[in-house]
Write a structure and sequence with these properties.
Blueprint lengths: L4 E7 L6 H9 L6 E8 L3 H10 L5 E6 L4 H10 L5 E4 L5 E2 L3 H11 L3 E12 L3 E3 L6 H6 L8 E3 H7 L10 H11 L3 E14 L6 H7 L1 H14 L1 H6 L4 H19 L2 H10 L1 H7 L6
Parallel strand pairs: 1-2, 1-4, 2-3, 6-9
Antiparallel strand pairs: 4-8, 5-9, 6-7, 6-8
Helix pairs in contact: 12-13
Length: 281
């Protein structure tokens, strides 16, 4: 059996962090690994120096034009040979026993096809990256599985890899495909994954606000692509719109109370303008 774990790292202008990421893989307690860095359009010179100085015999570096993270990850898989895949961004880190522990769980139960752990922020923000425990119906409404999860290569290929038509949530889409095909999910309740928020990086909430329309387009693509699976789990169009109607009725009743309307108008005029012109009285 091929017990090799292929660690796929998409790379784009990450000179300040890639050495840390490579070091965390080098320090893994599980050693049957290969590392595939896919340079997505950055200057190749720096990575060529990394190849020469890293001392990692299992390191492969691929250069491509700037095609985005999904295609970089797909390209990394095409150039890998492991039976297991782990995607790790070029500025994130995993603890030394991440691969050993996730692999042990995958191999202990063939029904489990995705294994991940709890995560912590580091650098510009610290503390737990709070994600709810996996529950299928809730997961179909909002992703709770980080990109850094151990999976089988065969499941990735069966799902068709990362969908290049998505500009957000491509990892969520992949997890849905694996689960739709019968895969079970396991979370390790220890903090084995470190998710970097760079000092110069915008918060996720700011990014989502700025890209709200684009996010909506990606939500719709995923919902349409997996519509039968959503419907099987009670999230078909009819139920979805029924829930939206009930929410609108509640909002109308809540915001139509005279004193609440007065408070918003006097003390929160911006919110008043965003709510009341569109509210059915």
């Amino acid at each position: 059996m091929n017990d090799l774990v292929s660690v796929i790292i998409p790379y784009y202008h990450c000179e300040n962090y890639i050495s840390e990421t490579l070091e965390c893989i080098k320090n893994q307690t599980y050693h049957k690994t290969e590392i595939i860095i896919v340079n997505d359009g950055s200057n190749p010179d720096f990575l060529d120096k990394i190849r020469e100085t890293s001392g990692l015999r299992n390191l492969k570096i691929i250069h491509q034009q700037n095609l985005g993270q999904s295609e970089a990850r797909n390209n990394g898989v095409r150039n890998s040979t492991g039976n297991y895949l782990l995607f790790l961004d070029c500025d994130d880190k995993i603890l030394p026993d991440f691969i050993e522990r996730t692999l042990k769980i995958l191999q202990s139960d063939k029904e489990i096809r995705i294994v991940y752990s709890k995560g912590r922020y580091f650098e510009a923000r610290e503390g737990e990256w709070v994600l709810p425990e996996f529950e299928k119906r809730s997961f179909l409404m909002e992703n709770c599985i980080p990109i850094t999860a151990l999976i089988y290569r065969e499941d990735f290929e069966k799902a068709g890899g990362f969908d290049k038509n998505l500009t957000f949530f491509e990892d969520w889409d992949l997890w849905i495909s694996i689960i739709e095909n019968g895969g079970k999910v396991h979370r390790i309740d220890d903090f084995l994954f470190l998710y970097r928020i760079q000092n110069a990086q915008k918060s996720l909430s700011d990014r989502f606000k700025n890209d709200a329309e684009l996010l909506g387009d990606n939500y719709f693509k995923i919902y349409s692509k997996h519509y039968n699976f959503y419907k099987e789990n009670g999230i078909g169009f009819q139920r979805l719109f029924a829930a939206l109607r009930e929410n609108h009725k509640y909002r109308s009743k809540y915001y139509s109370v005279w004193y609440r309307k007065l408070i918003y108008k006097c003390f929160k005029p911006k919110k008043y303008q965003s709510i009341y012109p569109n509210l059915k009285q």
